[in-house]
Every structure is written in structure tokens, then in C-alpha cells.
Amino acid sequence: MEKHLEPSKLDIKIFDKKNSRPFVEASLDNKEVYELRDDTMRTPLEKADVFEQLLQTENACELWIVPVIESTSSFTQSLSEEKASALFGMLSSFRKNVQRDRTFLVLGPDCSASMKEKVKELGYTILPCEEADLQNVTVEY
Question: What angle (nearest 5°) sits at the alpha carbon of residue 112, between those of residues 58 and 10?
């Protein structure tokens, strides 16, 4: 059975120019930025299903995906899910750095405040971002 999906109002931007700094190069005037984390132990299919639900938003927002490399221990400490933290703790014993995609929700004036609640309902962790921290986000892979 084929699904018919309406075009999403969620604009997805993927940053792949190595060493670029998306938050320095783009204007974020009148916008709020939050990092989305899925620290759950969902399977890839479950994650895809939840992401599809996120795409069905009626809000005109942006989702920025930025590949980064960071120390495994730093990443492990930021995890809120105990099982995921333990798993990556094991990984840090033999892997110094981890490559991952950081996902940011960029809310402008056209995006409803209910978007943050929808993201939380879907099980994502939503972390407010400070502008100074965003200035240091660099595309690495």
C-alpha cells in the first residue's frame, strides 16, 4: 500500500561543506535554536517512523543537520538515556572520537510555539542553544 504524503512545511537543511560554520554564515535574527537529541533506544525503523511524524508538522520551521566529530567521552556525558550512555561508554574505551549528525530545530516567527511540545511528545530531547556555543559548531566528517 502506497502512502500519500503532503509536502512538509519543515524545511530540512543539510550542511556538508567541510570546515564550514553554519551558524556563523547564516543570519539567525529573530530565531530560536534548539538541539534535538534522540537518546532513546528506538530501533532504526522506530526512529524513521517518529521522524516521519515530525515531518507532518503544520509549522514552517527549519531542521538543520550538521555532521560533526567530537570526543566519545564528551558525547557520552551528554546522553540522558542511561542505557545509551553505557553503550557509548563502552565505545569510548576503544574509540577516541565519534562522528555523528547534530540536529538543530530553528524556529522563526512563522513557527508556532507548539512545535517544541510536538517534538517533546515524539520523545526527542530538546536543548536550548546559546549563540556563543552555536558559533563553534563546525562541519566535520
Answer: 40
